[in-house]
Amino acid sequence: MNEEIFKARTKQLALKIIELIESLPRNRAADVIGRQLLRSGTSIGANYRAACRGKSKADVISKLAIVEEEADETIYWMELLIESKIVYTSRVDALIKETNEILAMVVASIKTLRRTIKGNFPSIQNRKSKIQN
Fold it and tell me: How many domains does the chain contain in total?
């Protein structure tokens, strides 16, 4: 998938998360979880854009690691919305699926970049992502 399509997917995810947040009930738990979800869900695309402007492979990996963390956190907040019965599973299933797909692609990109760096510099340790596919 090319960079522009991936940027568009992450932006669409952010817009759908904003839409979800706006539809949440107005209570303390929903407000707190919603705020966290809004922050992490919208930062996926912003951090991906920053990664696209990385100055080196190591810089890109570092920025993509932030995207990985934010995507995983976004899934966590959506799971909390479901498990706390604030929203029905059906309301966020597609968002969780899309976030998981984005997460998988980012993890794969990180692994590929680390392999290319290790290939160029065999003494560099190949640090693995904590998230396994």
Answer: 1
